Description:
- Helices cover 48% and strands 12% of the residues.
- It is of the alpha/beta class.
- NADP nicotinamide-adenine-dinucleotide phosphate binds at residues 14, 16-20, 38-40, 43, 65-68, 93-96, 114-115, 141, 143, 190-192.
Amino acid sequence: MSTTIEDRVFLVTGANSGIGEATVLGLARLGGTVVMACRSATRGEAARQDIVRQSGNSRVSLELVDLASEASTRAFAEAFQRKYSRLDVLINNAGLYTAHRNVTADGLEQTFEVNYLSGFLLTHLLLDLLKKSSPSRIVNVSSRAHEGSTIRSRTSKASAVTADTARTVNRNSRRSCSRANSGGASKGPASP
Ligand SMILES: NC(=O)c1ccc[n+]([C@@H]2O[C@H](COP(=O)([O-])OP(=O)(O)OC[C@H]3O[C@@H](n4cnc5c(N)ncnc54)[C@H](OP(=O)(O)O)[C@@H]3O)[C@@H](O)[C@H]2O)c1
């Protein structure tokens, strides 16, 4: 059964600023239900109200998630599935760049967890809902900045595992971007 844009549910992470906010505004103007996944209630709600005002679409909602925390990402995915019966497009957009090494409460380097691992985990947790809503799309907004660096770890085993994970995430990211680019609502990886 075909769905109209008004029936569709879009989820955008890191949606209160930059590329994420612009994406939500564009989708809201098209008339869909758009869920903004943000870590700050204050920044998220300010952006949501602005987008509702500019788009005239009141079906823009805010949900809180801290992608620097595996527990928060898991809790968010569970709550999302209780609230929404479908998910047509998941846009893993949230990301950050820091000049210094920060380690999250999960013991992971912050950029790696927020920009890569949590998007991968969120996709995995929402995959059944995405499949149920087929034809659905996963869009990973990524960066080429990692090309200028290497992954260092304390043990060679950990290093091999981490490098392998990074390669898999990047490969999957490129695949889903190219699928999305050939399939409609899409946004490829931005350049640094
Ligand atoms: N702009 C560029 O030139 C460029 C180039 C290459 C790649 N990119 C990629 O494009 C994406 C968007 O970047 P942007 O330029 O639009 O940056 P931005 O304006 O800084 O937006 C990033 C968003 O991610 C959110 N975020 C950060 N840490 C988070 C966390 N722990 N949990 C949940 N949300 C979190 C931020 O929330 P807060 O407001 O709360 O911090 C913000 O809403 C990123 O993935 C970035 O790597 C951008």
